Amino acid sequence: MPAHLPIITFSLMAARGWTRALSECQHLDRMLETGKGNGQCERFNQTLHDLLRTLPPEKKRKWPQLLLKLLFTYNTTKHQSTQHSPYELMFGQKPQLLVDQLLGIADGEAIDGAPEDWVARHKEHLVTVYTSAKRQLEGMAST
């Protein structure tokens, strides 16, 4: 069990179940006022802002309706830092895009054999992708 567990205080945390489960952790009350305290959040906000800036002026006014499309684009695009898309890192396979299917280049994996075999192959692929991303990030950090 970690010595400190940062959490946002809300009424459920005061429930008896949580109190017992977290009894060995030191409780630190923190208030998250801005995203500036969270580097990952701040970096993603900047990336999203940059994506929104690429929209033509007439579409910028409709940015809330376009947000899901922008997030899909972000999640299915290979990132320079990891050499993998967030989708691939999360699900262990390349995203199946409509354009790939229309062009006949979809590379979906058929599930042949027992489901347990597919799960084992999928797990092996995830480990390979994570290892590759970690090596890429470590290489970038050392330069």
TrEMBL record:
<dbReference type="GO" id="GO:0003676">
    <property type="term" value="F:nucleic acid binding"/>
</dbReference>
<dbReference type="InterPro" id="IPR052160">
    <property type="entry name" value="Gypsy_RT_Integrase-like"/>
</dbReference>
<dbReference type="InterPro" id="IPR036397">
    <property type="entry name" value="RNaseH_sf"/>
</dbReference>
<dbReference type="InterPro" id="IPR012337">
    <property type="entry name" value="RNaseH-like_sf"/>
</dbReference>
<protein>
    <recommendedName>
        <fullName>Integrase catalytic domain-containing protein</fullName>
    </recommendedName>
</protein>
